[in-house]
Design brief:
There is one protein chain. By secondary structure, the chain is mostly helical. It is 65% helix and 6% strand. The protein folds into two domains: 9-65, no CATH class; 67-117. The protein has helices at 25-33, 39-65, 67-83, 90-117, and strands at 9-12, 21-24. Strands 1-2 form a two-stranded antiparallel sheet. Helix 2 (39-65) crosses helix 3 (67-83).
């Protein structure tokens, strides 16, 4: 497709305390190139990988900025997975768990923002 891919290690943003994780783009590109599929399919896989890589980075940045919401959604997803296996009403209960988790996460974020906004300012004595 005329696009040249330069192999350099890509960094995935992680929590500021932890060191950055190195992911070898060369290794993934080489694995895609070695597949026994048509060239067009290989090109599409490379494009899909680059988009998925950017999406995962964006999700990680979002969860780092909105930790309370991320925690609530993660717990909601775990509960929803367990509830989804209940016959007849499982799908509804799973969806309800996700919506409830999202609402709780948003409310925690808002409470945190409001508390920081109206926090008493310390007056020097």
């Amino acid at each position: 497709m005329g696009r040249t891919i330069i192999c350099r290690p890509a960094t995935i943003p992680t929590h500021p305390v932890r060191p950055k994780v190195q992911v070898s783009k060369c290794r993934i590109v080489e694995q895609i190139r070695q597949l026994d599929i048509p060239a067009k399919a290989k090109a599409e896989l490379l494009i899909l990988w680059s988009r998925a890589h950017r999406l995962v980075e964006a999700i990680i940045r979002f969860v780092e900025r909105h930790r309370q919401f991320g925690e609530a959604m993660l717990l909601g997803a775990i509960v929803a997975y367990g509830l989804a296996h209940i016959p007849w009403v499982g799908d509804f209960l799973a969806l309800s768990a996700l919506v409830t988790a999202a609402a709780i996460g948003v409310l925690k974020e808002l409470r945190e923002d409001i508390a920081s906004l109206f926090a008493p300012i310390a007056q020097p004595a």
